Amino acid sequence: MADITKEEINKMIKVAKKASKNAFVPYNKHAFGSCVLAYDGSTYGGCNVENSISGLGTCSEISAINHAIIHGKYKFKALCLYDTKAQISYPCGVCRQYISQFAQVSGKDFIIVLASPKGYKTMSFKELFPYGHYNRSDLDAVKSYAKRN
Ligand SMILES: [Zn+2]
Which CATH architecture fits 6-148? Predict the structure, then answer.
C-alpha cells in the first residue's frame, strides 16, 4: 500500500465532509462525501446525487473521480468515503469496479479512507476489491492515461 501522511488523510476528510454538505439526497436523506487524492497532491471532492428513478443516482466516489478527471487527473493515491452518519461505510460494488479502473491507470493500489464524524480507518483497495473486471486487450490504452498527469 502506498504511503499516506496524517495531513493528507485529514485534508481528504475535510474535502469529503465539505462535499457531503452539497449532496442531493431528497429520498434517502443519507449524504455522503468523497475525495480523491491525486499523485500531485491535489484533491477533488464529490457527493452523492440521487434521482427519482431508483438506481440512476451517482455515488460520491464516482462524483469525486469524475471531478478529478474534469481537471485532467487520472492517477490517484487515495480515495476517502465520508459517511455523514456516525458509521463507517464501504464503497458499493459499482464504485469498487469504478475505482478499480483507476487503480489500473496508475498500476498501483489505492488507499481507501473510510471516515465518519466519529473517526476513520484506512485499508488497501486491493483488499477491498481484489479482482476487478477489465479487458486485457484495452489495458495499454487505460494505462496511457497515467502519462497525462
Ligand atoms: Zn457506490
Answer: 3-Layer(aba) Sandwich (3.40)
Q: How far does the centroid of ligand 1 lie from the alpha carbon of residue 143, in Å? A: 23
* Residue 98, pLDDT score: 96
**Catalytic residue at 50?**
no
Residue 126 Cα to chain centre, angstroms:
14
Residue pair 48/31 in contact (Cβ under 8 Å)? The answer is yes
What's the 90 CA to ligand 1 centre distance in angstroms? 9
Alpha helices (H) in the chain, listed in sequence order: 6-20, 60-70, 93-106, 125-128, 139-143
pTM across the whole model: 0.95
Q: Kindly name the residue from 7, 8, 50, 61 that is annotated as catalytic.
A: 61
